[in-house]
């Protein structure tokens, strides 16, 4: 097909993106339903539907007409506005990648992931890694294969990392993680030699019903518009967005733990604010949504830790916390609460790890992924390697796989190469905080009053509104200058030295 | 396209139906999300998605290739098995109907319904019929137009009735409703002259949290497999099914009313059992799901009234009812409870009407629809006509539109001609009961023990498993013989005469 004018081609491009957005919306809702409301034994029919819709999505993207359309627009790049030019660039990347995956593999992989989701949930529940093994083996095999399709010149794991954070590779991450370890490990050692913090009151009985009210309150303090953002309950918390006016977060209530859901809500709320803050003009285009996992995690972990675990934020919310949980926290004051939610202690569960030891959990996953994709570790040996690394990095014994290598949903969801984004995001966030303070002065003064509006406005202006218009590296550097992990290690050192009087 | 063999064409037919099923699933989940979990102000993006998917669904059904496929199979009908033959018949009906609706009208109508859903919910909430008027006007106009497309030889309202119950028309319904009125109105008059039943205890405070547990219990007694059937909360209760292994019911909890949700759950549970009982072989075909609205309502109202409002059922569940609501029902015994849930009294809200006056609520809607589609009533005059008819049929004053003509979601959902199915379904159900008793003897003996298995097994055998394989009239007559409303009026007369000692 030939295009008669650039306008006609741009029109076709817009229509294509709107159609893709519609399928993404439909498949996103199917996934949301699967994880929130669907009865347990309904995966078969959903699998069939996903198989058919995945095939349609694939055909919609990978077809000669689209190839021609993109080529035509690339040949007329100088006549396109900046947004359209970037849309073409993003679509080209997706097209080339998809084009390299044979349709039947793409569809089979989608079906595999649908099945794996259910198998993993059951395996975790029953502490039965063996039942999940064949699924993870296939997922690893597909990811290796896809890595070769995406970037045959890169080492496979680098190619996968590049999917989540453009330009990232193991050389950079090895250095980054080494730098973190150098700062964190001595800090942890010092902390273990001083008086430990009592956080036992966080593990009294906290009824889910009251925690639900607490979630609503936290979302309100964060300034999340509930007419555009819902909250649901899932095994593993996540955020999904259908457009910048329809975002959903999920959490999981543990009745013996006040902070698990509390920080899930703030973390996912950070993701949600990023999506809600995108400019309307990117809706229903390839530029909608956050630009990379690293930038996304910078936002979620900014709210979770830099804001949510600050003295200022605790000061703002503590009266409400006491009101909701007056019995459980009868003898607890604001300082005790602040110290308890920041207690640094090597532990088993990543999502419940403290801010300081968190990166070590990521390093375990990073090392295992590197080996799985590198071919030096077999899936059946993951539990043993997991246990070995937790012992080495965190000094803890992993008693079972439910609290070990089955704890996260990422691998069953096909995400290999995603985990490092969490650590990167934390480091990005610390550097953003310094820049924000240069621009706004003492941001914590407002936070202490429960007013996050200036913080969020700054992030909307510099990060959120751009959605995927700028590449992640460019976006970050334009705002913060060159990435330097030192901002993060300095932040951690200062915070935890003060907290523990080191 | 030419087919080389019947097998090849049958294969194409199966693939077509599987694809249609996938889109129906996706759009069904979008609707489920919209009504259960979606934040309030998210309709715009969902509308865009529905618009695109509706267009795809339309194109998928209405295209020359499908026309050829159906013609080819019709020409080879003698070589097809019975199921395939019926699939062709059902698809042909849909094809011919869709073919008559221009694509742009079909899509515009889907978008209109998406918007109307949100507008109606708000209008009902704010008792503001005027804001809903332009939407209902358009829905009525579309339905008139579609009626002409479907069956230009029929009166428009007959054509619409025929959509929900093949073969139904106003002549039959006028006679049916007259027969009902003849039996019901004198009964109501007699009841109003005797001692009224005290049902005030049903309207104490019943916390939603405990009602949720009660719903779980009721579904358990009904033998609904929760691994294949979920329950959610919506403004207006409904049932949706994606296949026979994935069915969802919804309810609405009113904390000042124990029975509203109780009978919604049993009613929707009846719909769910019908869907869950379908034979696997009809999944992902045009024969999946219940065959008509009348037969569907026969199942829902069978469980709701014939079982759920029986002395035997009350006997079975009363210990649990007392356990859950011990304070509210401290002074209430089984007989008082049975009488209270059967109290016959003209009232405002259809879904909360008793078994006896229910049909009068339907008659009001039937008369209004007949006039709206017949062109003798304008939408703006619906509230006044509603009030007039409620006064005439039920003798009650309608104080506002929220509790009047805005109470049901059917019209905002585009369903005009559906309401009569409720009354027909009740009558079908009464006739099924007699047949069931002929086959099984005293079915209520088991029900009194909380054992509905024989009742459900009978319905699965005679009704559920057939899904849409048989036409509704044929299905009913093969099991019950010729339809006769007298079974229903006899059932009502006997039950309410005994209840009120008339």
Describe this structure in words.
The structure is a homodimer of 502-residue chains. Chain A folds into two domains: 6-100, no CATH class; 170-499, Neurolysin, domain 3, CATH 1.10.1370.30. Chain A is mainly α and 502 residues long. A three-stranded mixed β-sheet of chain A has the order 1-3-2, with helices on both faces. Chain A contains 20 helices and three strands. The first copy, chain A, has helices spanning 6-36, 43-61, 64-75, 82-100, 103-125, 129-150, 156-164, 170-192, 208-221, 259-276, 293-307, 311-324, 334-340, 358-374, 382-394, 420-440, 443-448, 453-462, 472-480, 486-499, and strands at residues 229-233, 239-243, 246-251. In chain A, helix 2 runs antiparallel to helix 5 and helix 14 runs antiparallel to helix 15 (382-394). The radius of gyration of chain A is 23 Å and the shape is globular. In chain A, a hairpin with a 2-residue loop joins strand 2 and strand 3. At the A-B interface, helix 1, helix 2 and strand 1 of A face helix 1, helix 2 and strand 1 of B.
